[in-house]
Amino acid sequence: MVEGLFETFLSGTELSLIFAFVGLFLLMGEALVPGGTLMVLGVGVMVAGVTGQVFGFDGLLPLTVLTGVYGTIAFAGFKRFDFYGDRGEQTSGAESLRGETGVVEQTVTSQEGEVKLDSGGFDPFFMARSATGDEIPEGERVRVVDPGGGNVVQVESVSDDEGGDEKSPADR
Fold it and tell me: Where do the record's region annotations for Disordered lie (predicted)?
């Protein structure tokens, strides 16, 4: 029945070619909606379509099975190689931000500012305030001294000789 609908609307076009183009469009969609879902699905559909073209599979059932197989392989590869760099970096609560280091993205004062934390989870950008009241310029390394519930963190400047890449033993 479904194959009949495809034949009615797309007579003369090979189904495997349609799969290849749909997969390609899904991969292009990944650029607009990053996160990996469209990448995994797009790779599965596109490679199934290309395989169908090469080996002459043009039925819906073989292409669907191939999509599942290739999609599973793409998912495993996507998770294994961690393309978005988010493995193990999710924060478990505001208190886990204490002692974290990052870089000032927008000059931090006692009233405003923004920092990008090295291990800030899915969205590493946080509104920040200077804990000392001093202005901290863009590009300077900082350490979180008070996570403040996670919405607005208080930071202090970290000099290079303080080893700003790690939490202090008291903060672990």
Answer: 137-172
Range of the domain at 126: 94-160
What is the number of domains present in the chain?
2
Q: Count CB-CB contacts under 10 A for residue 74.
A: 20
Tell me whether residue 165 is in a domain: no
| 3-class secondary-structure state, position 42 | helix
This prediction's pTM: 0.47
Q: What share of the chain is helix, strand, coil (3-state, %, to 5)?
A: 45, 15, 35
Q: What is the pLDDT of residues 86-142, one digit of tens each?
A: 555 554 566 778 888 999 999 999 899 999 988 766 678 889 999 998 999 999 999
* Alpha carbons 127 and 97: distance in angstroms, whole number: 13
Examine residue 69 and state whether it is found in any structural domain, yes or no. yes
169 located within any domain: no
126 by Cβ neighbours in 10 Å (0-12 / 13-18 / 19+) ranks as: buried
In whole angstroms, give the CA distance from residue 171 to residue 147. Answer: 12
- CA 159 to each of CA 5, 105, 140, 162: distance values in angstroms, whole numbers, following the listed order: 67, 17, 9, 6
Domain annotation covers residue 153: yes
